[in-house]
Write a structure and sequence with these properties.
The strands form 3 sheets. A 4-stranded antiparallel sheet has the order 7-8-9-10, with no helix packed on it. Strands 1-2-3 form a 3-stranded parallel sheet, with no helix packed on it. The chain has 7 helices and 10 strands. With 237 residues, it is of the alpha+beta class. Mean pLDDT is 89; it is low at 231-237.
């Protein structure tokens, strides 16, 4: 995988060295990216795609994309092959937030739901040989699934320079099936007795922590959800 941006070598020269199956991430980087000085697609980019080089989005937080560069790329008919978050600890609270948020940006940008999901699942699995059997609902395949609600409303999205755009659809996690086992996500708005989930705070080896509101006492609380292994380990006889 090649991480492009403000490098010493011109991007066009880097592309000439890439072969089928190689991946370029941060495809819409505004500096040393797929567009020339006039905002047109570099011919080397088109040639690389014809050779089988793959192009990934990679949201990230610093100089990886602006709405303007994405618009120009999409207007030129150059859609990313895969979508990824480039999520870091800092990104959990700034710009990126989570993978569904990144996917929702492309619904706002005009891709269909099918196009977005394919770039997050089957296309991504094909790009990485160890995962080639994932990202599919074929009978007999591994039951690793993410289940979402597609919500309508007004949702704010940010690019890497903090420019805001408003979309009208957002993918909200509902449940996860991993290895055939279902786990419901505690999404904002969900009620657990008197507690209303507000947001996720973090996760670790001993569970996940959520910010919630106690509707009886009108105060903010933290709720920790333990994994099944921990519940068995610490169970009281």
């Amino acid at each position: 995988m090649v991480h492009i941006g403000d490098s010493v070598s011109p991007f066009a020269k880097i592309l000439e060295r890439l072969e089928q199956g190689d991946v370029v991430t941060h495809v819409y980087a505004p500096i040393n990216g797929i567009l020339d000085a006039n905002g047109r697609l570099l011919p080397q980019v088109v040639q690389a795609r014809r050779r089988g080089v793959l192009f990934d989005f990679g949201n990230g937080r610093r100089e990886h994309f602006t709405w303007e560069t994405v618009d120009r790329g999409l207007q030129a008919g150059f859609l990313p092959d895969t979508l990824s978050s480039d999520l870091t600890t800092a990104g959990r609270t700034e710009q990126v937030f989570d993978f569904p948020n990144v996917l929702s940006k492309f619904l706002m940008l005009g891709l269909t739901l099918d196009q977005v999901i394919a770039r997050a699942t089957v296309n991504a699995a094909r790009a990485l040989v160890p995962f080639k059997n994932l990202g599919t609902l074929r009978p007999g395949s591994v039951a690793d699934l993410a289940i979402f609600d597609l919500k309508n409303g007004a949702f704010e999205f940010l690019d890497n320079v903090g420019t805001k755009r408003t979309g009208h659809q957002r993918l909200i996690p509902y449940a996860t099936v991993f290895g055939g086992k279902t786990r419901v996500t505690l999404r904002p708005g969900l009620r657990l007795g008197p507690y209303e989930i507000l947001s996720a705070l973090g996760a670790g080896g001993l569970g996940e922590v959520y910010k919630a509101r106690d509707t009886r006492l009108d105060r903010t609380v933290a709720i920790k959800v333990l994994p099944a292994s921990a519940r068995v380990r610490f169970a009281v006889p």
